[in-house]
C-alpha cells in the first residue's frame, strides 16, 4: 500500500525494504532490552503489557474492514511533519537538493512510514513474545526470524489473510490469551510454556481449519446454485408469450 501511495518504482523497492529491515531489527532490539529490563525491575509493567495485548485483540476483532485513506493516516501526517519532503525522485537517493535546499525524496518518506508502522506493530508483537518467555535472546531471535520470513513471504502471507477469514479473529484471540496469561502471572498464577504454545497452536490451527471449511461450503453452495440455474427448463416461445401477458 505504501509503495503504491508513494509510487515507488519497482527497482527501488528492495532498497527501501532492506533499510526497513535494518531499522526494524535495531528498533526491536532496543524495545526488547528495555521491555525485559522494565518487567524485571517493575512488575507492574506486566499489567501494562497485558492491557496492551487485550486491547489490541479487542480492536482487531472490532475494527472495520474498510481500507483506510492514507492521507488521513496518523503515521502519514506525523511523517510529513517530521521531514520536509518533495514529490520528486532523484534515483535511489533518500535526499535531494532543490534550489540549494535539502528535501527528503518520496523514497525516504516511504521508509519513515514503514519504520513507524513497524513500531506500532512491535508494540503488540514484543509483549506477546515476552508473555511466553522472558529470555531476551529468544524474544529477539524470534522477532528477527519473523521479520526475515515476512520479507520473503509477504505476498503469500497477504494472500493467506485474504483467503482465511477466520485467521484474523484467531490472532486476536491469541493476543487476548497472552494478555490474560501475563495478567495471571502478575497475580502469581503461572501458566506453563507448553500449555501456552498448545493454546496458541489450537487457536491458530482452528482459525485456519474453520476458514477452509467455510470456503469449501461457500464454493459448494455456489456450485449448487449454478447447477440449479442450468437445470431450470427453458420456456418455449408460447410459454414466454403467456408469461408476458
UniProtKB/TrEMBL annotation:
<dbReference type="InterPro" id="IPR022369">
    <property type="entry name" value="Integral_membrane_TerC_rswitch"/>
</dbReference>
<keyword id="KW-0812">Transmembrane</keyword>
<feature type="transmembrane region" description="Helical">
    <location>
        <begin position="16"/>
        <end position="38"/>
    </location>
</feature>
<keyword id="KW-0472">Membrane</keyword>
<dbReference type="InterPro" id="IPR005496">
    <property type="entry name" value="Integral_membrane_TerC"/>
</dbReference>
<feature type="transmembrane region" description="Helical">
    <location>
        <begin position="45"/>
        <end position="61"/>
    </location>
</feature>
<dbReference type="GO" id="GO:0016020">
    <property type="term" value="C:membrane"/>
</dbReference>
<dbReference type="Pfam" id="PF03741">
    <property type="entry name" value="TerC"/>
</dbReference>
<protein>
    <recommendedName>
        <fullName>Tellurium resistance protein TerC</fullName>
    </recommendedName>
</protein>
<keyword id="KW-1133">Transmembrane helix</keyword>
<feature type="transmembrane region" description="Helical">
    <location>
        <begin position="193"/>
        <end position="214"/>
    </location>
</feature>
<feature type="transmembrane region" description="Helical">
    <location>
        <begin position="137"/>
        <end position="154"/>
    </location>
</feature>
